[in-house]
Amino acid sequence: MAILVTGSAGFIGFHLSRRLLERGEAVVGVDDLNPYYDPRLKAARLAILESNAGYRHAKLDLADREGMAALFAETRPTHVVNLAAQAGVRYSLEKPEAYVDSNVVGFLNILEGCRTVQPAHLLYASTSSVYGANGKLPFNVHDHAVHPITLYAATKLANEAMAHSYAHLFGVPATGFRFFTVYGPWGRPDMALFKFTDAILKGQPIDVYGQGQMQRDFTYVEDIVDGLMAALSRPAAPNPAWDPQAPDPATSGVAPWRILNLGASRRVELMRYIEVLEEKLGRKAELNLLPMQPGDVARTEADTEETFKVLGYAPKTSIEEGVGRFVDWYLDYYGVKP
């Protein structure tokens, strides 16, 4: 395979690219190394990837139409995995245009590249945030998700619709993955686990939204990668049982397209997440309890029955194990003693 991975110097993109390289695949990574968070962390991830001869990097903004078209024409990837995006729910309230540029315009340029080279499979990141105002748990891909409550979620929902149109019109097999609260080593500094760890080690209070009563389906990053790896060689196909009179939102009768959840399939209270972190650090956190923030939801949980049926995907990593691995990485990377 010749696999193009966008966001390769980002959190999930780095882990996927490294796994692919370890398997002996040729990877073309795309990342503009923008300063949304500390670019030194991105540079450190990239240095690890570039130490492998099978990796080639393109420093490129997805919104660069000519640049992306030229990259597709030159590399002609057999598979494409889009993990690049302007991430973060709260930041979308501050800089909405960044989300449209990266998540909508950038994704269109990826679809146009796929239209040209016809890869065997396009995989792309969506998000559990698309379920939005839906209160039915666990979140099931066969339920309608049409009420996003943040612009970030709206752009990801747009990606799913855009991918369906290109799958239908141009036959590009496309699988969208709704990720659930991904965490682990090499995570983003704007994510809760990273911020909590940093504050606790510095003796500073941590901001805990929703009075600590929120529940999340925390999913370890390597479990996410397991799902992506399993999907690469299982391209989406039209669903022969699809009924246009009662359309299934997760599959299509007219296009090689599908939507799958990638999550741990368990709800964990935020306070339990913090307790595990305290245990691993050997320190207590000072809590600054705050109300829910705009765009937050009270609970998330993935129904992964369809994902297991299609991919044989079953997450393996407990919160205790995953948080412990993150803490070990953090202490080693930053040279901190707990």
Which SSEs are present, and which pair or pack?
Elements lengths: L1 E5 L4 H12 L3 E5 L8 H12 L4 E4 L6 H11 L3 E4 L8 H4 L1 H22 L3 E7 L23 H20 L3 E6 L2 E2 L8 H10 L4 E3 L6 E2 L2 E2 H12 L24 E6 L5 E2 H12 L5 E3 L15 H7 L7 H16 L4
Parallel strand pairs: 1-2, 1-4, 2-3, 4-5, 5-6, 6-11, 7-10, 8-13
Antiparallel strand pairs: 9-12
Helix pairs in contact: 1-2, 1-8, 3-5, 5-6, 7-9, 9-11
Walk me through this protein's architecture.
This protein starts with a strand and ends with a helix. The mean pLDDT is 95. With 338 residues, the chain is of the alpha/beta class. It has a single domain, classed as NAD(P)-binding Rossmann-like Domain (Rossmann fold, 3-Layer(aba) Sandwich). It is built from 11 helices and 13 strands.
Brief characterization of the structure:
With 338 residues, the chain is of the alpha/beta class. It has one domain: Rossmann fold (3-Layer(aba) Sandwich). The protein has helices spanning 11-22, 39-50, 65-75, 91-94, 96-117, 151-170, 192-201, 221-232, 270-281, 305-311, 319-334; strands spanning 2-6, 26-30, 55-58, 79-82, 121-127, 174-179, 182-183, 206-208, 215-216, 219-220, 257-262, 268-269, 287-289.
